[in-house]
Amino acid sequence: MSQNKRETSAIYIQGAMFVCSRRGPRLSIIFSLSILLFAACMYVWIIRYVTIASASRQPEVVPSSVLTDTNRHSNNVANEVNVVIAADFQYIQGLPPLIHSILANTRNLDNIRIHIVVCDYPVDNLLQYLECNDIRINKTLQVTQFTDSIISTNIRAAWTKIFMARRLSSVCNYARAYLHRLLPGVSKVIFIDADTLVLSPIEDLWAESKIHKTPFQAVARLSSYEKDFILRDVSPIYHKRFGTYINGSLNTFSAGLFVMDLNYYREHNLVDEVEFWLIKQTESRHPLWQLDCQSIFQLVYYNKWDRLSDIWSRFPSSVMLDNFSGIRGSIHWSGKPKPWMEFGTFSKAWKKYRPSECSGHGVCQNAENRTDWYCACNDFYHGTLCQHK
């Protein structure tokens, strides 16, 4: 209410009270009670308005304090779960909510190792962005720079040629083929795309993978080899190399989340198979498949993979519009728009797992050079992370 309106109201009330006092004590008491009732109603209305407005502006979030819950710590190296996430500049905004969702839902923080593979982006700048979003590197989080110097020049050139969809042409899309070199001391990993949230304990997925004896597990797609490949060209090549033809009716798998035995990959030198199919694609006069580098994994692991439960590769839908309450497994924003984009789908529920930026007192911003990140603090706050008032 403006100053003029408050002064006018005060004058009106004082005038009314003067009239009441001249008319007698009964009318004065009635008027006083009316004023009190009006004030009480106004108070209730204001509280209700503020509550609703705050709720609409501030979605419910998972507090960062759950990440340091001392009841979820122990030391059991035998059950260590290694998770790999690959991201470049276009996908780093997916990292904080994904990391937060994994750690918030795990049963034992000490058994989780998250390896962030950075592609075409400086590690120092990624660390700035994570710190800006209340995530710091420690024994749980490790960062590895993927550089294509670990592969030969001709193979590097071949990778740049095979991508039919420009949005998939990131180095990160083929970094998964070289995890055995990037993580030499790791025997088995869960690979998760950065546009994902994990809503169940990641140990459940790890335990499910142990049931299977194959070197690769993933969720089956509703598609098949017949639909995803040009089998009249691919199957003869496969037969010549392995002595068998591809059964086109078999399902292919989703590569947005998978479990991979790196020891098997090393021992059977599967990177050679990856690069064999890569070269065949570049030598062909027309595409041999539809799904870029994912299709290479479909061929390398043909008849060598098992199905994970479908809950580990869900897609967001209208039933998840406001929250993910009761949803198990993981949610994967395959395709565009991503939830962090301006018109991102189902972003309200995704934001539930986004940590507080800049101690909750600012916004994490990208400098003009598009590499450095810094906290732009709200009024009255200062410090690198807006932590001081």
Automatic annotation (TrEMBL):
PROSITE patterns: EGF_1 (PS00022). InterPro entries: EGF, Glyco_trans_8, Glycosyltrans_8_dom-fam, Nucleotide-diphossugar_trans. Keywords: Glycosyltransferase, Membrane, Metal-binding, Transferase, Transmembrane, Transmembrane helix. Residues 375-386 form the EGF-like domain. It holds the Pfam family Glyco_transf_8. The keyword Glycosyltransferase applies. This is Probable galacturonosyltransferase-like 10-like. It comes from Saccoglossus kowalevskii (Acorn worm).
